[in-house]
Amino acid sequence: MKIRQELNKTSGFKNFELLAKQVVEGFIAGMHKSPFHGFSAEFAEHKIYNTGESTRHIDWKIFGKTEKLYTKRFDDETNLRCHIIIDNSSSMHYPELKSFSIEKLNKISFSALASASIIQMLKKQRDAVGLSIYSDTYDFYAPEKGSERHHVMIMNQLKELVRSKPVKKQTDTYTYLHQIAEKIHRRSLIFLFTDMFQTTTDQVKLFEALRHLKYNKHEVILFHVFDRSKELHFNFENNPKRFIDVETGEFINLYSDSVKENYEKAVSKYFKDIRLKCLQYKIKYVEADINEDFNNILTTFLIERQKFV
Q1: pLDDT (tens digit, 9 = 90+) per residue, 64-81?
Q2: What is the pLDDT of residues 269-303, one digit of tens each?
Q3: Mean pLDDT across the chain, nearest whole number?
Q4: Which residues, other chains included, contact 283 with Cβ-Cβ below 8 Å and sequence gap of 6+?
Q5: I need a surface site. Which of 120, 141, 216, 246 has the fewest CB within 10 A?
Q6: Whole-angstrom Cα distance, residue 207 to residue 250?
């Protein structure tokens, strides 16, 4: 409860980093160990066991099948490498905010604050962090590094992301996810923050790009950031309104109730397809409704992940 009270007193863009620190300190104060650990023992190959060697890494499953002794060889990698990817298209800046506070977040500020909180936690472990930001262009890229200067640079970039108000920036997720995947050569923990809305409707290409992120034994976590009330249930007053696509400028005039049922069915099916594909590709899916409590969403994920590391 203490962390929530402190967060509620803090508002404004200038306190962005302080909010992230408080989330992490509240998580640690709750007696939770870090949910992020380095890949300290990454399996490489089997080799024949030689007499006198340690039996610690003997693969007993192989022995049960072949009655021959083989040991596992590992590539040592002591520190965690993490790469954060954020969708910076115009739809991610919905709804428009006049100020930044923990009680009122839009999709981009949720993504930036969650990213900053994760970076604060990794910083305590001296882990390497990288950042990619994309929209209809590859807006920003920083490779994974663990220096204090690098962490500060990424945090400043996240602050600018929250302040910015891009106009008619479309989403080209599948193009840039492929490019980003090609840049991450060593096994990493990858966070993707996006609303999964595309200007084009080619779901096959989008899901192929998600799958590409998994190559090289990367662990991928998708934070699906959206406004459940408006973007899923289409809860608007039933007055004549002009609905404008913030990414293309196209618009349509209608009564919300005239399309609500069909809209909700279509979007619900699409969201279900996303969850199923994540399950198929072994991508961790995190539902992030910006109307829900930020602290609950993030700490629930961290605690859940902690159980499996």
Answers
A1: 888 888 887 655 455 789
A2: 999 999 999 999 999 999 999 999 999 999 899 98
A3: 85
A4: 210, 213, 214, 220, 221, 222, 277
A5: 216
A6: 26
- Tell me if 16 sits within 8 A of 22, measured CB to CB: no
By DSSP bridging, strand 240-244 and strand 251-255 are antiparallel
Enter the pTM of the model.
0.82
Domains of the chain, each with CATH number or no CATH: 2-35+78-306 (3.40.50), 42-75 (no CATH)
What residues pair up with 70 in beta bridges, in sequence order?
Answer: 48
Structure token digits, residue 198: 């595309």
Please state, in angstroms and as integers, the Cα–Cα distance from residue 235 to each residue in 155, 229, 261, 264, following that order.
35, 6, 11, 10
- Cα(110)–Cα(288) distance, integer angstroms: 9
Please tell me what DSSP assigns to residue 94: P
In the chain, which ranges are continuous DSSP H helix? 2-8, 16-29, 60-66, 107-124, 148-163, 173-183, 203-212, 260-281, 294-306
Mean pLDDT, the chain cut into blocks of 10 residues (309 residues total): 40 69 79 72 67 78 84 63 95 84 89 94 88 94 93 93 81 88 92 88 84 90 96 92 87 92 95 95 96 92 79
- What is the bridge-based pairing of β-strands 70-75 and 81-87? unpaired
Helix (H, G, I), strand (E, B) or coil at 241: strand
Other CB atoms within 10 Å distance of the CB of residue 250: 10
CB-CB neighbours of 301 under 10 Å: 19
pLDDT of residue 9: 41
Look at the block and give the residue holding tokens 């399950």. 279
The four Cα atoms 182, 78, 31, 26 give a dihedral, to 10 degrees, of -40
CB neighbourhood size of 167 (10 A): 9
Task: Give the Cα separation of 126 and 79 in Å (integer).
Answer: 8
